[in-house]
Amino acid sequence: MYLLFVKPEIRTASGLVARPVLTSYYKSRHFRERPDSPYTRYTSPNEAILCPDSAQSMYAQLLCGLARRGEVLRVGAVFASAFLRSVKFLEAHWRALCDDIRAGRIDAVRVTDPACRDAVARVVARPDLARGDAIASESEPAVSSRFIVRRLWPRTKNIDVMRVHLSCPYTFLLSVRRSTCLDQRGPRLSMDALRLELGGEHLRGAGPRRLRAARALCPGLD
Fold first, then answer.
1. Other beta carbons less than 10 A from residue 133's beta carbon
2. How far is Cα 202 from Cα 148, in angstroms, rounded to an integer?
3. Which one-letter DSSP state was computed for residue 166?
4. How far is it, in rounded angstroms, from Cα 174 to Cα 165?
5. Residue 144 reports pLDDT greater than 80
6. Which of 32, 78, 112, 147 could serve as 183's disulfide partner, Cβ 3.0–4.6 Å?
7. Residue 32: which domain range?
8. CA within 13 Å, CB half, 42
9. pLDDT (mean) for 163-186
10. Distance from CA of residue 72 to its chain's centroid?
């Protein structure tokens, strides 16, 4: 389940269309007509990825990922910040996602883009009460969020993201999340190693807000 998103295009003063390079790639035939491969076989249909509304695209892609949870071997996004946004989005919308899986539909109020809605509807075409209930039981607020990625996608082996300089504030967040998302059956950082990594490098010169966030996520961090 690799979450991919397009960004809005703008028109320059000279009339040229400007858009991010990843958006250009996703809209190109090289992406849309890519050959089948384990590395380019996504849980989301192209129409969900190309949906211009980021909230609708996020909902549609998470719905597909949850509906096909037994097939997922890796989760992630191009950038760490996008993956963290998807976790927060899931925390806020899990009830609606579970309802759609139980009913075998995609909520037409939440996703209004026709191409995206029709493509996702084919992925979740069959009602699945058991799957919806299983996902809900792992997402309830009363249930600990530890190992949530492993619990929702039990075959997951790793989280794939790219970190760049502008994403530095998310580096330590992802490290902490990764340690609480994957359990001992898969690759993960030990809490001791995590504290050492965060205390030694990730938080070097960090401001008060960043330090408070790290300590909240990793109790006992010095």
1. 12
2. 24
3. G
4. 14
5. no
6. 147
7. 2-143
8. 23
9. 47
10. 12
pLDDT tens string 91-116:
899 999 999 999 999 999 999 999 99
> What is the spatial distance between Cα 154 and Cα 53, in angstroms, rounded to a whole number?
29
Distance CA 52, CA 32 (A): 15
- Return d(Cα 124, Cα 100) in angstroms, integer: 8
Q: Judge contact between 91 and 100, C-beta under 8 A.
A: no
Q: Is residue 23 part of a domain?
A: yes
Residue 221's SS3 state is: coil
Cα separation, 210 vs 147, whole angstroms: 23
Taking residues 139-150, what's their average pLDDT? 74
Contact 119, 45 (CB under 8 A): yes
The whole-angstrom separation of Cα 210 and Cα 189 is 20
Percentage of the chain beyond pLDDT 90 is 45
Q: Residue 131: name the closest of 99, 179, 163 by CA.
A: 99
pLDDT at 40: 85
Q: pLDDT, tens digit, for every residue of 60-91? A: 999 999 999 999 998 988 888 888 889 889 98
Q: Total structural domains in the chain?
A: 1
pLDDT at 65: 96
| Alpha-carbon separation of residue 192 from 27, 174, 179, 200 (angstroms) | 44, 16, 11, 12
